Amino acid sequence: MPARLTGQWDAGARGGRELAPILTSMFLHGGWLHLAFNLWFLWIFGDNVEDRLGHARYLFLYLAAGVAATLAHVFANPGSTLPAVGASGAIAGVLGAYLLAYPRARVTTLIPIFVFIHVTVLPAWVVLGMWFALQFLSGALALATTQASAGGVAWWAHIGGFAAGVVLLPVLSIGRRRGRRRG
């Protein structure tokens, strides 16, 4: 809960702020569908970024983006008492890194048109750029509404994680040869 980290919530007998949830919340999910979508995005984009960085640097990127995502969410919602769970912010970091590494990679995309689903192939910069724009717009709208009407999605965690991935990829790529696999 952001309010617990900012000290705006009475922690009761536990006293003080707990920092472990900044990391552990990435391993909890709001249900099977939440977990499935996170795994789907990770499956589509994560392996290429891991190939580019190697296992250890990829793990660091993932965890650091998750921490950055949590801190962005706390900054945007300092008094929120809604628990923030899920790996979406960390996965958004992987998306940011993928966009930087493979902007012209082709991504098979489902586009809903009313009740029909259209399948098309688009460049990664279009898919991820539109995804980021949607997150930013939703985050800005959530800031303008009450917490109850924001829907419980940590939009700013997605934005913070994505930005962390964009910033971390070049740093973590220093001294690293490019992976064989290309998006």
If you had to describe this structure to a student in words, what would you say it looks like?
It is a single chain. The protein is mainly α. It has a single domain, classed as Up-down Bundle (Rhomboid-like fold). Helices cover 57% and strands 9% of the residues. The chain has a two-stranded antiparallel sheet with strand order 1-2. Helix 4 (55-76) crosses helix 5 (88-101) and helix 5 (88-101) crosses helix 7. It is globular. It starts with a helix and ends in an 11-residue tail after the last helix. The model has no long low-confidence stretch (mean pLDDT 78).
Second rung of CATH, namely the architecture: Up-down Bundle
Overall spatial form:
globular
User: What's the tally of helices?
Assistant: 7
Report the order of strands and helices: HHHHHEEHH
CATH class: Mainly Alpha
Largest sheet: spatial strand order = 1-2
> What is the alpha-carbon Rg in Å?
17 Å
Give me the secondary-structure category: mainly alpha
Low-confidence sequence ranges: none
Total beta-strand segments? 2
- Main sheet record: 2 strands, antiparallel
Multimeric state of these chains?
A: single chain
Give the distance, in angstroms, between the N- and C-terminal Cα atoms: 36 Å
The CATH topology corresponds to: Rhomboid-like fold
Give me the CATH superfamily: Rhomboid-like
The total domain count is 1
Mean pLDDT: 78
Helical percent range?
Answer: 55-70%
Give the amount of beta strand, in percent: 5-15%
